[in-house]
């Protein structure tokens, strides 16, 4: 897998890799939450739905250097920001 240059392609953009497939409810809910947060902050973003696009599936695998697709994933100006993976609390 060769990592492409996304810095130029996504310059000035907020890009959110997400899914509209609701079968895995927790993943779908986390995607909805990130979109809601961005909308509440009035952030314009480009949504890349990996469920609807093989191109976006390949792209996120390349960007994350992984064969596994985990969404949501947020990039700003071509740089990886992160995800909203739930934090596990010890002893709870």
UniProtKB/TrEMBL annotation:
Pfam families xrefs: Glutaredoxin
SUPFAM superfamilies, per database record: Thioredoxin-like
PROSITE patterns: GLUTAREDOXIN_2
Domain Glutaredoxin residue range list: 14-81
Superkingdom classification of source: Eukaryota
InterPro entries, A to Z: Glutaredoxin, Thioredoxin-like_sf
Name by which UniProt lists this protein: Glutaredoxin domain-containing protein
Source organism per UniProt: Euphydryas editha
């Amino acid at each position: 897998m060769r990592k492409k240059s996304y810095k130029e392609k996504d310059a000035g953009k907020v890009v959110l890799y997400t899914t509209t497939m609701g079968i895995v409810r927790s993943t779908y809910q986390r995607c909805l939450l990130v979109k809601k947060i961005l909308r509440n902050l009035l952030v314009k973003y480009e949504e890349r739905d990996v469920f609807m696009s093989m191109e976006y599936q390949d792209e996120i695998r390349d960007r994350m250097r992984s064969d596994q697709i985990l969404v949501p994933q947020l990039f700003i100006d071509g740089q990886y920001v992160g995800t909203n993976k739930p934090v596990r609390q010890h002893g709870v």
